[in-house]
């Protein structure tokens, strides 16, 4: 059985929802951030960066949400197009785009000590915000011409990842839902039973959409 080390509403949520979508049995192991468990010697053995998610699958232990997502979709041959196809190339591009462009902006947004600040100067905060909104614009343009999902008509695990990032913008001055095609994709993902189950299991309430 899979073991997912998680913290509610964080980067582990995409993997949690994916495991539900894949109908795989899994055990959730809460990493208590308030108690600093992510930096405990025991957890650092699993991920030297002290971050969730970590997935343990028998002798396999893997961290980095994108790597875990690719591992699981490949292993179960689901929620990803077949290898070597045009659709698969687009899928890989979308995952790489999200994790190389959007994810770091959010990491800096939520973790100012990463950039050496207790609290950001206004100009830096505004720049991060602008970086995020310009990515929303690019994604919205793409979904407007070839949506409603990141692979056009085909729902995939990439949509779960994008929805998680959109959720993280919920308390920003401009949220991802201000862009109509992003709102449409978020609504499609949030109407899935897996989203409801995720919310119940993680005890989430904000930005439920149901
Ligand atoms: N690139 C990593 C980022 C993981 C990450 O930043 N996780 C955050 C939660 S969203 C975390 O564990 N933070 C705890 C900490 O940094 O102390 C991934 O996608 O898995």
Name of the top-level CATH class of the largest domain: Mainly Alpha
Strand order of the largest sheet: 2-1-3-4
Number of helices, counting only DSSP H or I runs of 4 residues or more: 8
**N-end to C-end Cα span:** 30 Å
Counting DSSP E segments of at least 2 residues, the number of strands comes to 4
Q: What is the CA-based Rg, rounded?
A: 17 Å
Attached small molecules: glutathione
At CATH level 2, the architecture of the largest domain is Up-down Bundle
Strand proportion, as a percent range, falls in: 5-15%
Please give the share of residues in helix: 40-55%
Low-pLDDT ranges: none
Shape by Cα distribution: globular
What is the ordering of alpha helices and beta strands?
Answer: EHEHEEHHHHHH
Structural class: alpha+beta
Q: Largest beta sheet, briefly?
A: 4 strands, mixed
- The CATH topology of the largest domain comes to Glutathione S-transferase Yfyf (Class Pi), Chain A, domain 2
Number of domains: 2
**Overall pLDDT score:** 98
Protein name: Glutathione S-transferase family protein
Pfam families: GST_C_3 (PF14497), GST_N (PF02798)
Organism: Rheinheimera tilapiae
InterPro entries: Glutathione-S-Trfase_C-like, Glutathione-S-Trfase_C_sf, Glutathione_S-Trfase, Glutathione_S-Trfase_N, GST_C, Thioredoxin-like_sf
